[in-house]
Amino acid sequence: MVVDALRCREFAPVFAAAHRHGISWNELDEATGLKADRISDYVKRGTYPNPRIETVERIADGLQIPGWMVGLTERPWELTPPADSGREMSAVNRRDLLTAGLVLPLAGISAARDETEAALAYAGVEDVTDVEAAAERYSAGYRGRAPEEMLGLLAGRLKEVAPLMKLKHTTAVGKDLARAVAQLGGMAAIVLHDMGRHELAEQWFVTAVKVARRSTDRQTVAWVQARRAMVPLNYGAPRVAAKLAAEARREAGSGETAAAALAASVAARAYALTGQHEEADQALRAADRIAGLLSHGESADTWLGYCEQKHHVHRSQALTSMTNTAAAREAQLAGIALSTRMSMTRTLLLLDGAVCVRRDGDPFGACEAAVEAFDQAPDRFRAGLVRRRAVELFNSVPDNVRQSTAGRSLGAALISA
After folding, report:
1. Residue 15 in this model has a pLDDT that exceeds 80
2. Of 215, 250, 285, which marks where a domain is finished?
């Protein structure tokens, strides 16, 4: 497997896969600085012995392989991707796109989405209990897995179950299948979101909404839509997030459900970010009310449920954005008390605390708090959403703070994340 080979810095399988997909030895030569005949020889032998770190960096940069896949820090081109020139694709551009499709674990999840989209156009009987069981099992979340591992599990399961949607089922079985596939697709999108792959996350959420509508289960549709709203919420488009969250609230209706609580909380955060504090306060009050009335099943600590810890996370974000730092800190402390030390949730709450410190007029202390949050974070969760939150904090402090000891420490932590 190419991903495993990259992890071991064994590049022969990578070169072989690239060549099978139309990339010439000379193009690989141009991209990596290795001689074409040497690359061909490595592929024939099936191994590339002990490359130096400089060579690893050159190959990673030449083939646009993300640094984390070969044990490097984030590459400069990952931070500032080249602008699209609008010209016809060059051999290098074509190579980059093809290689990305070969080596990234995202290729598997993209293929799974293609399968699901294709299945939507078809209509033959199959027991779908195992699909429902898979959705329930995976809804427990990461449980110690790295996001890449979780994504691989979901991608494999989705590719297995998507063809079932082409078969003819009874109405009840068809709805059960659609609900389970929508949940699995939504979970894949959640992982992509956490990894910072927000464009792919959005694509998968769109597909999951289509599948959810086949189930005619409004709570499933509302859950997917509310989760979908968190993509623009966390990646720079809060007005779009507010619109999607409002749609999710309408879909969820007036019942006390996990989807309704989530939609209200996400709406509160989106309104807070757009300066609509009255609307944010109303949505947050609604979320508080619904969260307090949820049944045991609806308040489960899963991706499909809305547990107390999750509620504190959303409250913290909304209140922080509304500059109500005292109430935000209460939510952060309550959420941290319910979080395991190795969870991404705990890190996000600690970073919220750092933002509160900055809002209270201490940017130096905010940087110190953010560094402490990073130091305590599990390695597998230091990229993606966590890193973005820390970058936002770093960019919000004045230049003299960034040049201070605390600021430089935070900058170094971000570079190594």
Report:
1. yes
2. 215
Q: Is the pLDDT of residue 80 over 60?
A: no
Co-location of 270 and 321 in the same domain: yes
Range of the domain at 236: 217-337
- Tokens standing for residue 117: 């989209």
Q: Dump pLDDT digits (tens) for 215-244.
A: 999 999 999 999 999 999 999 999 999 999
Residues 353, 314 share a domain: no
**292-333, pLDDT tens digit by residue?**
999 999 999 999 999 999 999 999 999 999 999 999 999 999
36-45, 268-277, 302-311, 405-414, range with the lowest pLDDT: 36-45
Q: Are residues 134 and 183 in the same domain?
A: yes
